[in-house]
Sequence to fold (115 residues):
Amino acid sequence: MNTPIRRGYYRTVRNNTVRILGKTLHCKNLNKGELDGKRFYFKIYKHGREQSPWNQEGLAYLWGTEAYAKAVNKGASKKMLAELYKEDGKLLAPNGYLDWYWWTEKHEEQPHSQG
Fold:
């Protein structure tokens, strides 16, 4: 039996960003809108026993697709999970590895004052 996954966030990627707990996160390995419009399950990366839910870099990781996460939580069969995992792999790791696993806080660029 699969253990339910908790304390994550379902988000739709838009313009290579997601917004979680007031932070706008992006993935530096994506720049062509590869995942735009698709929904994923994100987990926040914590470091140590800090009070803040975030580590200092504002890191989160893309755990998998929304469909796979929900199937795990519903106790889907091993066969169903294997098929969903295979589909996740086609989307998230087309070259056999996950390039865009880590998402970091995106800081808006401030215009430089002239003077």
